Amino acid sequence: MHTRTIASLGAIALTACATTASVAQDNDAAFAESGAHGRHVKVMIISMFAPEGQVWLDHLGPWEAIPVAGLSPDYPDVHCNKQDICVMTTGMGHANAAASTMALTFSPRFDLRHTYFMIAGIAGIDPAQGTLGSAAWAKYLVDFGIQWELDAREIPPGWNTGYLGINTTSPTQKPPLDYKTEVFQLNAKLADAAYALSHNVVLTDSAQAQAARAKYAYAPANRPPSVIQCDTLAGDTWFSGTDLGQRARDWTKIMTDGKGTYCTTQQEDNATYEALTRAANAHRVDLSRVAVLRTGSDFDRPYDGQTSADNLLNYQAQGGFPLAIANLYLTGNSLVQEIAMHWGQWRNGVPQR
Question: Which of 201, 208, 306, 307 would bridge 319 by S-S if both were Cys, CB 3.0 to 4.6 A apart?
């Protein structure tokens, strides 16, 4: 009798779930067909913490603050200007990024069906690909956190790392993509357009950053910052070290079938993109309109003679943070203004260039 009762309750629950799913699908269809979609947005800049957002607020105002239910209590408003450019701040890390982006995209306050999204934040950078202040447009987003990890002191003979893909048998194997968020490929046409618009921008530099760069014996680490194209790795755990950095390079190659090149490390982008994917499935956003820009605020590994601990614990002494914030705006604004000022050319997709 108890079993039958549980089964009956399960059937009722499944019926309720099916009804809820049906209602959700009906709501999605109604959203797609309705003429009332909220405020139109040409460009939505997604930042992760206050300084990343503030650099846009300082340059592109005046702003209207629009409260959105479900955003981070630290950043409860989306700010929009008369150009239909908006800025939101998610809060740091995977959980905040996903939750805030979901709240934004499912809010009735905005029409985001034709919006271009630019994820714009600072990151650690591989000195073999860029330097402090470099600005990197990505084509691939790779999650560094979805791996198995063995204690590095107990790795099998012949292995060079304790990391390996989940449900694989060696560090060099590509795992089955069971999570569906391990790797994303962005619209290369948009990434190339963003790079073409910004690659000649003169970036900010400083004497402090120049001194930190000079400790690296190779380029581009010891060169001035520039706009580059290479890919970004997401993981909530900050890391520092030559071996960990090499794993980041190798993991990016594995997950992109050799097509991607690791250069920046951050905490949010796969989570943000997955939230946008859910919204795209509900016909609320267009995934072909997502660009990702990351600027180098610190090196992900030490220079020769420096310890990994010193590189991590004293990362602020490198002087890259103010450059990375300033260069987010200098680089990203080229794309933002191109879209906003030539909306007729961009409304239906990335124009031929």
Answer: 208
